[in-house]
Structures are given as C-alpha cells and as structure tokens.
Amino acid sequence: MVEKAKISSSQLWLLLFTNVVATGVLFVPAVTTLKGKQDAWLSIAVVATIFGLLTAIVISSLAKRFPRETIMDFSISLWGRVLGKIVGLLYMFYFIHSTGIIVRQFGEFLVTAFMPETPLEVFNLVLVILAASAVRNGIEVIVRMNQFVIPLILIIFLGLIVLGIPDWQPEELLPMLEKGWGRVMEASLTPVFWRSQIALTLMLIPFLNNHQETRISLIKAVLVIGFILTVETMAAIMIFGNELIVNYVFPTFYLARYISIFEFVERLESLIIVVWVAGVTVKVALWYYCAVLAAAQWFQLKNHKPVVLPIGVLVLYFSVFLFANTREIVEHLSTQAPFLGLFFTFVVPALLWLTAIIRRQGGGKVG
Amino acid sequence: MGKRLVVLLVLLSFVLGLSGCWSIRETEELAIIGAIGIDKVKVDGKEKYRFVAQVIRPDGMGLNQGSGGGGGGSGNSKPVWVIATLGDNLDDAHRNFNTRSERKMFLAHNKVIILSEQVAKESLQEIIDLLQRERELRLRSWVMVTKGEAMSALTAQPQLETLLHEEYESLVDDTRSLVSKAYVMDLKDFFVALADPGRDPITGKIEIIPSKEMQSGGHGGGGEGMSPKTSIRLTGAAVFRKDKLAGWLGDKETKGYLYLSGKAQQGVIPLRMPTHGGEWGDLDVSFEMTRSSSKIVPVIEGGKLKVKIEIEAEGDLGEHEGKLPIARPQDLEVINKEAAREIKRMARQTLTKVQKEYKADILGIGDKIHKKYPKTWAAIEDRWLELYPDVEVEIKVKAHVRRTGMIGESLKIR
Amino acid sequence: MEKHAISLDLQENRWEIQAIFENCSDLVIREFSIGAETAVKAMVVYIDGLVDIKIANQHLFKSLMVDIWETPVAENINQKNVAALVKDRLISVGELKESRQLVELADNVLTGEMALFIDGQDKAFLLGIKKWDQRAVEEPATETVVQGPRDGFTESLRTNTSLIRRRIKTTRLKFEAKKVGLLTKTDICIAYIQGLVPDELVEEVRQRISRINVDSILESGYIEELIEDEAFTPFSLINKTERPDKVAADLLEGRVAIIVDTTPFVLIVPATYPQMLQSPEDYYIRSIFSSFIRILRFVNLNVALLLPSLYVAVVTFHQEMLPTPLLLSIAAAREFVPFPAFVEALVMELTFETLREAGVRLPRPFGQAVSIVGALVIGQAAVMAGLVSPAMVIIVSLTAIANFTIPTVAGYLPIRLLRFPLMFLAATLGLFGIMAGVMAILIHLCSLRSFGVPYLSPVAPFSFRDFKDMIFRFPWWAMFTRPRLVGYKEPARQDFHQRPRKPEPRTRESSGDKHS
Description:
- The structure holds 3 protein chains of 3 kinds.
- Chain A is mainly α.
- Chain A has helices at 9-36, 40-65, 71-79, 81-113, 120-137, 139-164, 180-187, 189-195, 214-244, 251-258, 269-298, 308-321, 326-334, 336-359, and strands at 260-261, 265-266.
- Chain A has a single domain (9-357), classed as Amino acid/polyamine transporter I, CATH 1.20.1740.10.
- Chain A is built from 14 helices and 2 strands, in the order H-H-H-H-H-H-H-H-H-H-E-E-H-H-H-H.
- By secondary structure, chain B is α/β, with parallel strands linked by helices.
- Chain B has 2 domains: 27-249, no CATH class; 251-403, Nutrient germinant receptor protein C, domain 3 (GMP Synthetase, Chain A, domain 3, 2-Layer Sandwich).
- Chain B starts with a helix and ends in an 11-residue tail after the last strand.
- A 5-stranded antiparallel sheet of chain C has the order 1-2-4-5-3, with helices on both faces. A 5-stranded antiparallel sheet of chain C has the order 6-7-9-10-8, sandwiched between helices.
- In chain C, helix 11 (287-316) packs across helix 13 and helix 11 (287-316) runs antiparallel to helix 15.
- Chain C starts with 9 loop residues before the first helix and ends with a helix.
- Chain C has 17 helices and 12 strands.
- By secondary structure, chain C is an alpha+beta fold.
- In chain C, strand 11 and strand 12 form a beta hairpin.
- Chains in contact: A-B, A-C, B-C.
- Chain A binds chain B through residues 112-119, 122, 125-126, 129-130, 133, 136-137, 171, 174-175, 178, 239-241, 243-244, 247, 254, 257-258, 260, 266, and chain B through 1, 4, 8, 11-12, 15-16, 19, 22-23, 132, 135, 138-140, 188, 191-192, 195-197, 370-372, 374.
C-alpha cells in the first residue's frame, strides 16, 4: 500500500525545516510585525517555539505508538471506522487545499515582486508540474532534492542576514514588550501556525527508519526554524523600523534589495527567486505527496501514482480560483488559515493522542 | 521513468513557448533612468505636476546616434536625454512619460530623486505613495530638495562624471564624509522618518550655480538635454516637519545637526583662539575632525521631561598660523576646550533654529522618548510636535585633539 | 549447431576445415610429415595475422621437421606414439590444449590459436601462440594527467587485465570471463575484488550481462547502453575510462569493472555523478590543492550549465540585477545587435558546438584551421559587423572553457546538452525559468540510480563520512573508509593514526654521539 522508502532522522528535520522556512521567511515577518510591531520577534522566538515544541511532543508520541501507520490508519484504529474515515477525508482535503494555497503564494510573490506582466497561472502550472514529477518518483526523491536545497537556503538567508549587518539599528527593537505579552500573544498566531506545519510528519511516520530519534529531530526542526525566522524578522525590524516594516508585504525581499556593500555587492533580490523556487518546490512536493498518499490510503489503492494527476489538477484549480486578489490571501493567511491549520496540525493529533493514552492503544513496539 | 526528464522539459518548453513571453524587455527597449525630479508648475492657470526623468542613452556615451530629441534637443551625441511630462496628478504625469519616449521607463537604476522646493512645501503624501508603489525604485536612492525647479537641477552640467546622476552620487558620498556640511537621506531613511511619529526627515539641499568654466563648452552641444551654464552644488539640508518642508539649514547649521546626531565624519572647525596669558593673541587654528559621536538621552526629572545630548568629537590639529608653539599638551587642552565650545555653539544654534523656528524633530527626540519611556510616550505621542519646541535640551560637548598631523609645530620662517 | 567430431583421417579433416572456412582467404593450411621411415602426416591450420609466426617457425615447424633429426625420437616415431611424443617432447610452446570438436576448434582458430592435426588422431592440438598487430600501451588521450601514471588501456583484453593485475597483486582480484555477441563473440571480463564488492552487485552485473542477446559488441558503449538502469537520460549511469589506475582505485572501493576486448574503454559500475567530476590526478597531487581544484570544477560546472541562460535572463528580464555601469555597456553594445538576446546566445552556442565538432572530427592540421576560422571569422567579424555583441562572445568562450575543466566525457556531455533547454527557459521566463529547469534536472538526478546506488550520493542521500572525498579531497591518511554505499562489506580501508608527525626531537647527547 505504501511505497518502500526510508527517511533518516536528520533527513526528517531538514525536510521539515524547508517545509516551514521556504514560505515562512517571506510571509511570517510581514504578518507578525503587522500586529506585533517591534516585539514580533518575541512572538516567533518564544511563543511559537513553545507551541512548536508542544506539537513536536504530540506528534512524536503518536509516532512512537504507531510506528508503521500514518494518521489515516491510526485515526481508524483509535476512533473507529466511520469517524476515522471522516477524519481521513478531512485530512485529504486539507492537504489538497493547503497545497493549492502554497502554490498560490508562490505565484503571487513572483508576480508581485518580479514579473508583473506574466500571468499567475504560468508560475502555478510550472510549479505543479515540477512537484508532480517529484511526487511520482516518491518521497525519497523529495528528501534527496531537499538535501540539495538546504545548503542553498541556509547560505543565501544567512548571507542576507550577515550582509545586512552594516545597516542594522539595534535600537529599533526598543522598547521591548511595549504593550506587554498580550500583543506578543496576539501577533503569534501566524508564526505558531507556520511552526505547527511540522505536523506533516503524521503522514511520514511509516517511512522513518529510527523512531527513537523522531522526537529529537522534530525538536531540532522547531528550534532551527525558530532561529532562522527570528533572526530574519529581527534583521528586518532593525533595518526598516517598526513603522515602515508594516508597509511592506514582503520585508525580507526588501531587505535583500536594500543590501549594498561597497556599492558592489548589491541587488541581491534575485537570490530570493533562487531560494523561493527551490524551497517552495520542495515544500509543495511534500504537501502534494501527503495529499496523494492520503488519497491513496483513503481509497485503499496499491500504488500512489494513479492519483498524482487528478490531485495535481485539483491543486492547480485551488491555486488559481480560491482567491480573487492578494488582499484575500493575506486576509486568509492571517485569520482563517491559522485556525484551520491548528485544527489539523494540533487539535486532532492531540485528541488522537489522548484517546490512545486513555485506551492504552498502540504498544509503541519499534522493530 | 527515465523519459520523465525529457517529457518534463519538452512539456515545460511547450507550455512556455506557446504562452509567449510576457515580461520580456530587451535592453534596447528600455529607457534607463538615472535620476528623476518632481515639480509643480502652472499651466494655463492650473497647477500641474511635472515629472522629470533623466534617461541615459547607452549609445550616447560613445557613438553618435541621434534618436530624435523629443525634449527639443538638437539630437547631438548627448549621454542623457531629459524628459519632462505634465499631468493633472503625479501618477498621470509619470505615466505620460511614454507619450514622449518610445522606450519603457526603467527605474531600477535610478539613483537620485529630486523634489522642488514648491513640491516639498506641500504635502508629500501623493509623492510618497508613488515612490513606494513603484516596484522598480530602489530604497537606496538619494532624496534631495532643490531651491527652485527640479527640472533645472536635472539639466545641469556634470563636471567630472559623464552622467549627472553619477555626479550627484559622488557628491553625496564625498560631502557627507569629507566635509560634513550636508546631509542626505536615502529613500528608506526618508520613509522611516516620515512613518515614525517621533522623527522628522532631513535631507540634502541642491543649489544650482552658474558655472563659468563651461562657457567654452564641455560635453556635447547645448539643447534641453543639458544647459551648459549651470552646475550643481550639494550644501546644507532641507528640514521637514512631518511631510512638509519647514525650512533650510545652511552649511554650518547642517554641521551642527551632524554633531547633534553623531553623524559628523570629517570636516574642519576653524577656531579663533582667545588671548591666553598674553601668549597667543588672536590665533587662528583649525580642528580637523576625524570622528564624532553623540548620545541623545531623554530623562524625566521631577515629572519634567528633559533631553541631554552628549557630543564627543575627535580630531587632529590642522593649520595654525604658527607664530607661537601650541602643540604642547597643555596647549592642546586649551584647544580641546575651545573646539568643544565652538561645537556646542554650532549645535545650539542649529537646535534652536530647528526646535523653535521650524518645530521639526529631525533628531528623533520623540523616538528616543518612545524607546526609553514607552508609557510617557503613549500619553504624549499625539501632541508631540506641539510639546517638542518647549522641551528643554542640554548639550554637553567633549573634544579631543589626538594627533597633530605629520608635523608638530609649524615650520618657523625666519 | 551440429557437433563435428574430428575424424581419424587427415584428408577428411582438411575438407571439413576448408568447408567451414570457405572463402576465408586469411586461413592458412600447411601439411607436412613427422618422422623418417614411418613418417606420420600432419597438418597445421591457422588464421594468418593472428598467430605469432616466428614462434610457430621456431618451436613447431623447425622442431618437428628439422630438429627432430638430431634426436633419437625421429627413428622411432609411428602412428601410435606420435601424439604423446609431439605433445611431451617436440613442441616447445607453453599453452597447449586438445580439442575433439571441429566447431570448437574453428572458434579457437578464429581467436588466433594454431591447430595441429596429426593423421590417425581423433583430436587436434591447439597452440596458444596468439599474436596480432596491436597498439602499444600509450598515454590515454581522453584523460590526461600531469602527475600520475601514463599507461592507458589498449584494444587487447589481456593487456588490459595485465595492467590491472600489476596494480592489485592479490588472488582476491577476480577476472570472470564471458563471451557476448553471436557473431563477434567478444570477450568480456568482469573484474572485482572478492570480499570488498557486495555480492549482490556482482550477481546483478552477471545477470544483466547474460541478459544481453545481440549479434555484435564492437565497443563497451554497446554494453553500457544494454545494462543501464535508466534508458532515457542525458546522464551516463556507468563510468567509462581508459586509465588502469582509475579502474584499480574503483575496484578497491568495492566497484565492479567490465573490460571488453577490442576497446580501450573499461566500464565501471556503479557510477555516481560526483565521481565524474573527479580526475585520478586528484589523488596524486597534494590534497589541499586538489580540494581547490575540485571546488573550481564545481563552480565551472555551474558556469558551463548556467552562464548563457543567466545572460539571456538578465539581459531580457532582470536588468535591475546588473550594476549600472555594466548594464550601460551591455546596453550600448546590444543597441546595434539585430537579434534578441536569446537568438544571439542560441546562434553563438550552436556555432561553437559546430566548430568544436568540426575540430574534433577533422585531421589535426585541418582542426587548427577550423579553430582559426572560428576564432577570427565568427568571433571578431561577427562583433565588428554588429551581428553579435562582444559580451556574448565572452559568455560563449567562458562557457566553453568552463566546460573543458570537467575531467570526464560523461561529466560534461549532459551539461553541454542541457544548456540549450535552460537557455530556452531563460528566454521565456527569466530567472524563474532557469530555476524551474534546474529543479527539473535536480528531480531527475535524484530519481536516478546506477546499479542500485543513488546517482547523487554522497550528497543526496547525504553521507557525512563520504564527504572526505567529495568537494574536498582529504589526505590519504584520513581516507579511513570506503564509500558507504559500495564498499560496505569491508568498510575499513586502513588504520587510523597514520598522520605523519614531526619526529620526536632527539636528545642532544645522542645526536652529538652520531656526529662525533
């Protein structure tokens, strides 16, 4: 039913890292500073990290109890066939829907920042074709692709941060906690949602080859993601100040644009395209794969390949027709998406975990 | 399975090839713009915006290739072509660019934005909106205000560089770091200062000066592309209150501002030494600054807001008339005091003008209060600009002569 | 096929042979007698040009027809003892076999053995005195090194195995012989070191080779395409080399080599792409320098793949990426060029490929002429005529030079090819198009395997241990282990703690003693 593949614990956290950072680094600073102003980084560094760790514990506990099953399987064994199937169906739709939104974000950024004359559909189509070919080749290809993309992301983002240092004005981060933790909590909805995307692991449990280390690699993912997003947000605040930053849809992009060292190292925004295409391809491929796997499991297919095409069409449809304009996406990302996301990435898994504890199900036999 | 790559590439190529190339623009379809200016002029009794753009002609730098000087130019090999277009509002004027130029406006390489005095005196809201919304414009562009029309600031003749915008750029770099007599903000800082309620923008002032050397003709011919009789000077600064030009600062006042904000780099402070124990008489000495720093600290003492500004300047001993020895340690101490007094005087003068006359918080004192006393700030934020002129500011200056240059005392001529 | 037994009658055998080798003018049949009174008729059959005729004269004809008279043997020879006498005492040739089947015998004669028929015997002797004109061991033309051994494989299988054997003197080095091709009956040889190589791998190679059913194998490229994992890919999934030192090194890592007769190119499996960016010389020069060279090659790989498309993308889509002065000079140069940048780049790249192909195929003196025409006419004249911008010429040259730094043919061929679709993508979608193309290539590469080993290992799947021989080449004392995915049966290569250290300082007395 499920393809034979192996994901090592380090591959897992690298995959989750790309999964969150690829889009997070562009959207999270923008949406978080909108509410949190100069304290936005606290939302990312503290609140989202704590929550992320909580998610990591829930997921890794489930992985320990059901080392050979995805959420599609153990929701049935915990909650019974009818409810389990309903949960599975919801997850399937959630994955397809989310993939569509990610593809949309991808195209939307490229259109806004780089090629305004080119229709959005072109970008979305190219991305979906790329992701589909990766998905057909299976999770191992996605994982390996990610290992190439990771150094690219790290070098470019850390490079952008370091090159921006001459323009940092650390006093822009003051006053700290101006409006207290209330505002920080309020602003943390988006970063929390992004961090909770590590819950995609729920679909990858049977591939993990070392269940002892799953918890550690999830925690590693949460912390490293937190570090990168926090530093990126702080850098953006320190360069643009908390009043101007809220004006920009993509502060990270402007940050790359603003860098100028000796008037020679400048105009680095093109590097953003490189990371954006590479990172988002991996991210979309991963979500797409989860959607395909969920569908294959739900329909009890032997092989996941037949559903790649229909789901690709659905994803493309969602990516183009779900929203009419940019403001709707931002609106969705800052209001509905987090709640919808948290329901699937945290609430349902947590309930499943509680059920498992109460009913003492899932022996946690690893072997 | 292996056919995938082939199929994928072919598929991608077809998809893209069939759908065409939307964002394509060859270099020969671009009007590369080095500097823009915004004016307001009266045409038939109606106020209209005038958008001035300086288009660089890549071929004009070498070969002669007259491409029809729409601006009334003679079509000679000028490296630039200045296009000015009118419009009822700014966006209209800006879009009208393409009624004059067959090439698409390309602002990504724009370096300089010049506002005319008249434009700056009115609200900048519309201009700022355009500058922010324009995708190509870089946040590193320098914003400057000219006395007079932006048009004439863009038609001036560059002296050393081929292109005017390069001349502006190097002027900004040099004037800021070598003489500390002007201050220019880039677009990002300008936006930040506008967006922050506790800060007001201050930026460079451009003066257009008639240039005598140009009579014999320098580059190319005349025409609208460049008026041979003028050149530019960057001097002083334009002070804004919120988004409106409040007034100008002269050379010395700008220097005072640079001390106050700790941005002063190199520059000379001429000192006239006092009679010191009958030893010196009226001696002229110059203090050549190498670096300075300042701290602006708001304090609340007994419920009253006060601001303390501490300036520290370091420098070398520059010229002196050399009749008497002054490079002894105890003499340097006197010079230190004298320099500090002079700096303080300049700083105070600037501060008074800015605070009392222009009522513009270019030092970002409000912002400092915000950062140190967020609660107090929350209470006064809305009426900060009304409170600001009456805030008591205390200035403390320390100056240190570190070196005396390559010589100790002057050469004694006998 | 019907098995012809060798007849007791010499004449019958002769007719059979002549029938089998009808119209084969290179066949030589020589009849003569052995002995005096009771002389026995004998016949020698061989293919002219495949046997060492000097040895035949010296040790067969002379000893049977002349020297025999100086020994008492000649007198006593008769039909009964002739075979034993000839084998034991008269023919002084090392390799001697017996054959009773004419067809088998004919096959052996075709490989260059000499057959000796004796009247009244139902068997023939096969003398292994093969010798044909062959190239001497020369320096390989494709993979030259500055420092390192200069011997290269030749067209002869035996020479090739001997070159490997000379480097690895262990009985664990096995050469399994096989014949492939119905007509060509090409000898091939599967070489591996027992115990190092995974058994599954050898079994897999054996199976894939035995599955081959074609009439001819003329070069190892035939075999390569028949046993690959993936049919349609621009990337070579099997390494090809004519350097014995490279084969030896790969065998020692636990890989399998396939040596094919009549070609100097030996196949090595499994192959990975990073391997194709390495030259044997990397292991002979100082490790710091070879690490530098490898980084340089990696950069050049990207330049060769991406530079033309980046140029197209930047000049037609992302002019904001260039520094202003550079943009102005490119724009000034392009002002008079009548073509869009993409067409310009495509034409120039195609021209270059044409020139290169022409230069390779032509005899050397013409090749030079072609390169002069290329450089002068195409380069300079096109720029002067304003057909092409000078920037484009620089781009094409840089790309070509970067391409040449990739040390193996298998490494640079796909790069040369993939440049063109990438240029097309760049012209339609700019930088995004290039990245999409790069990601497509990456996905493809990630899905490739060569004999079960992921093609991009050790980068993906990542193996920290194997990075000692990837971008950096660690010194030999630090090469503790073989590659994880091929050499896992005996991972340890050597002892730890072999780093050279400064000798312990000698005490003054002892050194003083020596000198005094």
